[in-house]
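Throughout our pipeline, every protein is held as a single compact record rather than as scattered files. The remainder of this section carries one protein's record, kept here as part of the documentation.

===
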Amino acid sequence: MKSKFNLPSILAQLLLLTFVIIWITPTFGLLISSFRDKDHLAISGWWTSLMTTEANEIHRTKGKDGQIKEDGFFVIRSNLFDNEKGKKISSFGITSKRINEFAIGETVILKDKSRITVYENGDYEWMSEKEFKKKRGKRIFITATSPPNLTLNNYREVLFKEGLGQAFLNTIAVALPSTVIPLIICSFFAYSLTWMNFYGRDVLLAAIIASLVVPLQMSLIPILTIYNDLGALFGIAAKSFPGIWMAHTGFGLASTTFLLWNFIKSLPSEMLEAAKVDGATHYDTFVKIVVPLSIPAFASIFILQFLWVWNDLLVGLVFLDKHPSEIILTAKLKELLGSRGENWEILTTGAFISMTVPLFIFFSLQRYFIRGLVAGSVKG
């Protein structure tokens, strides 16, 4: 009996598993990072999100406005951590050169003869015989341990304060029509190129294949110029949702038609000829036979076109304005990267939000994806 597993198949499966891990790891890291607060994200990697972390921090006590008079002393009491819970201080210092000079609970006498004591939970007490005169407090250098802290505040800020929620809806309004429209047009086109005889069919097919090598960037400005002229003629804004729908449709026609043509020509010709003998028109043959058999191809092309439109930045910047009612998700993330380049908790959250719909689309249609990609590689 032949062994079910051999060395080449095992190596192929291990290689595939390696690629899956390489792809999933940064995605999982992005998900975890989107729930972390900015302080933890700045000092440690996402893999430490479920562990207690230790870091050196700088805090400042309250100034003269926070003092009270008690038993002949002027006293300032508060907490270094404000609303942060769970942190614990292991040591502290009053200069940057010796940040771990004192143990928690130890009373330190400063140069002005005032005394300050810092406790494990962040409470401090600063006492002086003389009234505090400075508005700003004393800098305290600490070494503190922080427990895991996951929060939804990043999503609240991104969706409701940064305007990413509206950009998310705008991108859906762009991506769905820009995927469905070329799919419908190209399905009829591919059928006609495969099963209908007309003059110039081969030349038209050759032109479609040749257009695949034309860079998208070469046609952006000419098309936008044409849109502006037509918009001025009919009183319609060139930069609008219908404009970008037509742009994405035009840019996707060649590749979508070629993929569908490659699949449809692999369908059994006997089945279509039998339908013709039974009196079916081309439209009946297409709707009742070709479309049901082409679902895997449609699903694969839907995924590819949708992912391309969803992740597009260049076409969105050219054919849409940047005001909130039109800006798409990738353009909004670009703005956040420019204005909030240091706020990684905002960027990671925004990036993961942008991944949710493509992931949902892919996993919903993935059972058709491989079948659609390999369809047409063999006859019959």
Summary: The beta strands are 53-60, 67-70, 73-79, 88-93, 102-103, 107-109, 115-118, 123-128, 139-146. The domain at 155-374 is CATH 1.10.3720.10 (MetI-like fold). Residues 164-195 form the longest helix (32 residues). The mean pLDDT is 82.
